[in-house]
Amino acid sequence: MVLAAVGLLLFLLPLAGLVARAPWDQVGPALVAPETATALGLSLFCSVTATAVALILGIPLALVLARTTGTVRAVLRALTTLPMVLPPVVGGVALFLAFGRRGLVGGPLHNAFGIQITFTTAAAVIAETFVAMPFLVIAVEGGLRALDPRYEEAARALGAGGWKVFARVTLPLLRPAIFSGAVLCWARALGEFGATITFAGNLPGRTQTIPLAVYVALETRPDGAIALSLILLAVSLAILIGLRDRWLGAP
Amino acid sequence: MLVKRGGFALDLDMTIFAGETVAILGPNGAGKTTLLRALAGLVPLTGHVELDGDVFDDSATGVHVPTEKRRVGLVFQDHVLFPHMTVLQNVAFGLGREGEGIAMTWLNNAGLGSKAGAMPRELSGGQAQRVALLRTMATQPRLLLLDEPLAALDVTIRAEVRRELSRQLAGFRGVRILVTHDPLEAIALADRLVVLEHGRIVQSGSPADVTARPRSRFVADLAGVNLLRGRGRGDHVELQDGAALAAPEAGDGDVFAVIHPRAVALYLARPDGTPRNVWRGRAEELDLMGERVRVRISGPVPLVAEVTPSAVQDLHLASGAEVWVAVKATEVSVYPA
């Protein structure tokens, strides 16, 4: 009990500190400041896009993971969960070495087409996807493993081919797992800092999401940083609460 | 066909005729469900599976028709209705365009039309299983595979689903295979019984033949008779543990001997007269079966006897009394093993 209370306090005290020390008179101006709107809009855009990309790439990845066994599975699993344990800054460095102007993929891309990924909004999206997608993959894979295989077998016996089974049986039955995975993924993407600032840089309007704006503001105008933090907290809470009913209401 | 899974191997060779209902009986782990899954194409096998001239599987030539192309109807123990679809959508799932119209006809014919818009979780167990059956029958399968379709239901609603099942089976012209461990279900629905044990067929035949001449402990228990095995010696059977059982026409060679529990008589004192098979035994276990009591007797020839409740009192059977056991030689039926 005591330990649980200490654990809870660890979560609560920083939040309390944030609220207690908040310069309430500055929250209003901070909210309407154009920089805030830009950073908030960019944050939402990047995190939602990253979640969408994670859904498109992560669900097939989870399917492959759930259908393989043995060494192949162990290797695939280690690869997909690596971004969860890797310090985000290291992830950012790795992304830079892969997609940077002199990187493994980024180099040829730049030489052939003149495309530069680093320091663009796309880079911020890639960084957030890199860090957040594992949450989705793990959740969907768990859902797949918990799925009674007889639903798919019944569908096949009724004459449904692979695609129809997936679209009409597997995917709808996975909806709760996909949904909770997407929420976790989105929340992680929204708070992403390390990989983004390393790989995408800190350019207002292009790659400066709210966490980055908070970090910069903390050095120059701490009150503004607190105000921005409160805004991010409020947005996260509002969306989580808004989604909660659907999340819990799912079968 | 041969199916290997871990340490278990299912190895059998059988032919089923169109319009025939075959019940696969066997204890748990005999390979009944594996057999159905192999026929449905859900597990890889070695050997050959053919339906009406169409090869489904042939390991020699590498033929394997995927499940969805086999037109097999698979009915599971519990309904496995898709929980996110309505009853109507479930029944229409295997049908093509305009499937919902056809599905509605099937539901109406079965008296389930009012449930078309319901979700599976709103149905009773019996209704759900009937919908599952309709969902399968609506696709007009060529081969119907029923995996203990009544086992998960309460006894009270089992009759309702069994009626529907009989009705559907009667109107179905393809091959029907029913897996069950309920002998009543097998006898009520099947033309032929196939008894599977340890992945092999131990007996096959009409329900009457199989129960009259059990060839395994499992079937003997189903039929509720005593099964003994030994060597025929003309007028008696020499049992495996050395005891002799008098029987006319015992023949010679390896034989089975069957004694109905009603033919086993129990006495307090050694009986005089005609019974030639008399020995001492001890009442070990009682089991009430309707108006009669079944008593398991240990002794030189362990048997189950069927007696009246008053005999249980008179012979003190409940307290594990020693009794005399007598069986008329003419009540022992012997056939080659």
Task: Estimate the mean pLDDT confidence of chain B.
Answer: 86
Strand order within the widest beta sheet of chain B = 7-8-9-3-10-11
**Topology, number of strands of chain A:** 0
CATH class assignment of chain A: Mainly Alpha
Intertermini distance of chain A: 32 Å
* Helix-strand topology string of chain B: EEEHEEEEHHHEHEHEEHHEEEEEEHEE
What's the total helix number of chain A? 12
| Biggest sheet record of chain B | 6 strands, mixed
- Return the CATH architecture of the largest domain in chain B: 3-Layer(aba) Sandwich
**Domains of chain A, number:** 1
- Judged by helices, strands and strand pairing, the structural class of chain A is mainly alpha
| CATH A-level architecture of chain A | Orthogonal Bundle
Q: Which chain pair shows the most residues in contact? A: A-B, 18 and 21 residues
Mean pLDDT of chain A: 87
Proportion of residues in extended strands of chain A: under 5%
Low-confidence stretches of chain A: none
Q: How many separate domains make up the residues of chain B?
A: 2
Structure commentary:
The complex is a heterodimer of chains A (251) and B (337). Chain A has 12 helices and no strands. Chain A is mainly α. Chain A has one domain (28-249): MetI-like (MetI-like fold). In chain A, helix 2 (24-32) crosses helix 12. The two termini of chain A are 32 Å apart. The model of chain A has no long low-confidence stretch (mean pLDDT 87). In chain B, the strands form 5 sheets. A 6-stranded mixed sheet of chain B has the order 7-8-9-3-10-11, sandwiched between helices. In chain B, strands 14-18-15-16-17 form a 5-stranded antiparallel sheet. A 3-stranded antiparallel sheet of chain B has the order 4-5-6, with no helix packed on it. By secondary structure, chain B is of the alpha+beta class. In chain B, helix 4 runs parallel beside helix 5 (155-170). Chain B is built from 9 helices and 19 strands. Chain B has 2 domains: 2-81 and 123-221, P-loop containing nucleotide triphosphate hydrolases (Rossmann fold, 3-Layer(aba) Sandwich); 224-336, Beta Barrel (OB fold (Dihydrolipoamide Acetyltransferase, E2P)). The mean pLDDT of chain B is 86. Chain B is elongated and about 80 Å long. Chains A and B meet through helix 8 and helix 9 of A and strand 7 of B.
